[in-house]
Request: fold
Amino acid sequence: MSDLRARVEHALKAEIAPALELDGGGIEVLEVTNGVASVRLSGVCAGCPATIMTVLTQLESELRAKVPEVEILEAVP
Reply:
């Protein structure tokens, strides 16, 4: 696992995922390559396209603040 992926996982799981879990959702980091972090949302967050876009927009800005090398956060089904 790359250091960048480890930093992304830490930022998402330790600092951001607990808020998702309060709403019955979850997040899994699949890959981090060329500034793109690919994640899979689970639970309540996974079923609604509008929710996915809202969650991703919020998570992406928080993730960029914590891991500036990540430019894009994308959801993978």
